[in-house]
Amino acid sequence: MPPRAQWADLPVRRGRDLYTGLVRDRPFVHNPHGHDALALLSRRADLWLRAADGRAAGEIAAELAVDAAAAQTWLSELPLLLRNGFLLAPGVRPWRPKGPGERVFHAWLHLTNACNLACPYCYIHKTPTHMGDAAVAHTLTAIEATARSGEVDRIHVRFAGGEPMLRFAAMQRFYEEATARCQAHGVRFGAAILTNGTVVPAGAVQWCRERGVQVSVSIDGVGPMQDVMRPVVGGGSSFARVEAGLDAWQAGGIRPYALVTVGASNLDGLPALASYLMQRQLGFRFSLVRDLEWGAGLLDDRHGAQAPHSYDATLPSGLLAGEPLRRLQRALGATYDLIEAEVGRGTLQPSFRRTHKFCDLEPWRPIAKACGAGETYVAISEQGEVGACQAALHHTGTRPLAASSLVAQARGQTQLSSWQRGLGNDECNRCRHKPSCAGGCPLLLHRREGHVDGRSPYCEVFRAVLPRILRIAALEMWVGRERQRTLHTAPPMDPPGP
After folding, report:
1. Mind listing the pLDDT tens digit for each residue in 448-462?
2. How many angstroms separate the CA atoms of 113 and 73, rounded?
3. Every domain of the chain and the residues it spans
4. Looking at domain 104-301+313-411, what is its CATH homologous superfamily?
């Protein structure tokens, strides 16, 4: 940042692709090219954004102010606006995190193909197969090679399946051994469990709490809606089981993160589910069902569907549109209305801005690709095969896991010709949300279009949801500011009596 005396000489102009709006009559702005660049604006800052057209800041300040003294006050608004890239000036770089940051490599570990639920949209073909001793040994060797390579500071494994809690003892053994091998090379090891929430083995809560293992629970509805979306093999209510599981986790001091798959069958119940999760004070993510297997179209109601199509057969191309799109937008609109009302009352916990996710959107940092597949992420099957993504396991392009670093194996994956996305099409390049979206899931796009550059099939959904997320996050900031102002201006309390 230049010295204060030089601010007046800076030519300033409005940043690119800014999104602006109002919450409680207070303007806010978001810079998708910035890091954590969302701000509530003062009246002066808002006028700066309107007036900045490439002229010197001093000239603009003089135009906006009533006298020379006031112009200096106007210039004092510049640091925040320049820091976040809301205003741009020659030689001034917006704030970026210092250094390369922690180097983290992620691995999806498919402990088992078995599951006690039969979710109709699941892309995994269920079998009773578990990860055997040989596959475990190969995976541990690869993790140790990754730690020894010097390329990472931390390795993070997601225990998944199937239902990984059916293999809890094996999970414990793997975790302890992987931790020891990583620590021997000065690398941290961490883990998360992706579970359907219906199985909580004895001792699991305490074990996860003591080791800091994160827990994510899949839940798609309340009551019968959950039972339809995620039926129990052999019958019974999956909602009753997952609710009991949530009770156990929360009673033991762990707050699971909720993973919600949104499809045609549970759209109408989405507002009720959001209310349920907010009452439990759980953070949650909405993920639109990925039509990777079933072949008919996006957001199908898959009940009674026949055998899935081959992964290698490209689906008909095109965006979600027409009445299916409008129905989805109505359901999401009603759901975010409830969330916004809760945020507006100042009662939502945990923080919406820090915990809520919608698909792979990243509003708080610019991205060139929606995930780390092929770079900082691999999936390992129960058979000891490695692929770019868990949704593409058990398909062509996976290869036997080697004893070398997982970083090198990620870069050498061949399931898709390239995961690096150019997004050279005109529509994406004109879209202000491109840095937050990056075209969505590359595997889904490749499945439907045969390439990874272009608009996501869910593009119009993203365009509708991103402004809602930004508005609610700005409202949360406004509520926080007002709470602090109330605390600072409250009269002192009377001293306690005798």
Report:
1. 777 788 889 899 999
2. 64
3. 4-88, 104-301+313-411
4. Aldolase class I (3.20.20.70)
